[in-house]
Backbone:
């Protein structure tokens, strides 16, 4: 035999390895979660079940910003600040634009050079597959595994140009948006709705010649945020400035998040938000399973395409089309059509 | 017999009446659409099917604003401007906060006194039932019926404090947000995300002592809008001022919408948006039907509640819970459990 088959870790190996905080096992478990193979998915599901009671204890922070805003250098400085407090930090990156390969993992470690060598930190990109609910679900599961492995702060990073921000908002406790100095063109890249879900905006690169501009940008955002209603947490969105280069403002970002946690814990929002997120993920999963189930039946899948075409060109009402699709799905489940 | 049973209109009566533009029949047809009785719903569905090819030809405008912004007086002035151009206008109002009774219909007609007497205008509130997808679906169907009855402009009004704005955005071509002069407290009532979906903001009551303040408010919003990325239509959101009292700016609002229609028609967004909306309503309907179907099976309904509780308190993973629910639903359809 040319290739020796690598022995699979058993469910017990995975469970015990994770609960012991073994990074090699954690890495393999995240790969398992990301796998599209049915047997891997089943094992991943059981693994998550096994470690479930050990999850939920970390502080979950979402972070986004357009390319060029300086996410890597910010995460490096911010991450070192966190591990410097004696806290174990996991950084999970979602980049739907580039498929994850050995190379890109390496790329991620290179762009956060110091942090990747920090024994208190764990850096991991999430596979870019959009199949069956996309990368966000995989990231959420990776997050739960990191929590079970004892990581105390989880930083979930997105590139800030896609739909993933809303999904990330729905898995974290606090959402950070990094912004560049200066209004106008540079800001045009910020996706609609992102500013409104942020718990804090951080103006990056506030150093050297940029300091004055960054303070102007801070004031401008602070002003603009007055137009929005207060978020359900009761927290007023902050605008901060920071420099990964001088380290200025990095501690303040951390302190702001601590302040938020304290306030949201006292007013009950922190726990209520987590509960609401759990239910919402359940509904999401169910709706995805249902959708996959519908897609699984070839006749139903084909009918859906036909109906969508009819609805689009107004030869069929949405109502009638929906009823027909449900009937076809029922028949498929009953085995009347495949 | 004390009560004579009112003869039901036949499907043919409804269809022909609507296509002739008979307002009495149109009113009854909207009532039919709003009815929760199964046989009414079936007839409504067939009616919509019958008139479907006669829909889609109007200009659909959404309008919202917090209570006190002057929606009724704006609609009155704006509506008269539209009918003054020789266009037939239908005004559909969604108010999820108050159930529709004869009284509230009367109330609506009173608050738009002139417009309600205009033979070119048709004013109708939509029932406030939230059952099965809520009022938005009923409003959309009422809109289609109005189109089939020959109305050339449809104005869909919401109260601006609920979730209905997003649903309305998804049924109209152009979305107007009315705002008050002055920043700060008065603005706090604007729901998150509403500013971002608006194609134009109209500062109301720009008359008398208020003119200077309204111009300041206009400038402030114009500035704030620069923070957002351009919408997919390529249209840059405008901020206008108007006075229902002096009539100032009312024509400009109309002209802005015409300009939008022209630009969006040329770049193809107008038609593409309509097609996308149709498919999206179909998916929405289907997902609602499916949900109602799940609720319909008592055992599945009960199981869902139990699973949600388990997911909330972390005794069950979202994954496992979703799989269990799907299995139970399958069994219910196969008749294995009820």
Residues:
């Amino acid at each position: 035999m040319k290739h020796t088959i690598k022995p699979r870790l058993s469910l017990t190996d995975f469970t015990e390895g994770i609960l012991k905080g073994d990074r090699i096992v954690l890495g393999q478990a995240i790969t398992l979660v990301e796998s599209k193979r049915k047997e891997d998915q089943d094992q991943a599901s059981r693994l998550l079940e096994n470690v479930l009671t050990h999850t939920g204890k970390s502080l979950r922070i979402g972070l986004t910003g357009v390319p060029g805003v300086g996410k890597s250098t910010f995460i490096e400085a911010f991450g070192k600040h966190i591990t410097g407090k004696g806290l174990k930090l996991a950084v999970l990156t979602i980049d739907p634009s580039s498929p994850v390969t050995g190379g890109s993992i390496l790329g991620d470690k290179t762009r956060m050079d110091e942090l990747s060598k920090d024994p208190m930190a764990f850096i991991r990109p999430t596979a870019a597959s959009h199949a069956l609910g996309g990368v966000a679900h995989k990231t959420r599961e990776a997050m739960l595994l990191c929590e079970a492995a004892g990581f105390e702060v989880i930083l979930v990073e997105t590139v800030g140009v896609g739909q993933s921000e809303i999904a990330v908002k729905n898995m974290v406790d606090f959402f950070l948006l990094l912004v560049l100095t200066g209004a106008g063109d540079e800001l045009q890249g910020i996706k609609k709705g992102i500013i409104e879900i942020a718990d804090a905006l951080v103006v990056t690169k506030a150093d050297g010649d940029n300091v004055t501009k960054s303070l102007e940008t801070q004031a401008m955002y602070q002003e603009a945020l007055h137009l929005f209603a207060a978020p359900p947490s009761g927290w007023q969105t902050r605008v901060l400035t920071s420099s990964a280069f001088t380290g200025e403002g990095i501690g303040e970002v951390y302190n702001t998040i601590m302040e938020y946690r304290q306030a949201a814990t006292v007013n009950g929002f922190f726990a209520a938000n987590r509960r609401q997120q759990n239910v919402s993920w359940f509904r999401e999963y169910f709706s995805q399973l249902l959708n996959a189930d519908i897609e699984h039946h070839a006749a139903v899948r084909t009918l859906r395409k036909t109906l969508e075409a009819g609805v689009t060109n107004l030869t069929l009402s949405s109502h009638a089309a929906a009823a027909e699709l449900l009937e076809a799905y029922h028949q498929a489940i009953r085995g009347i059509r495949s």
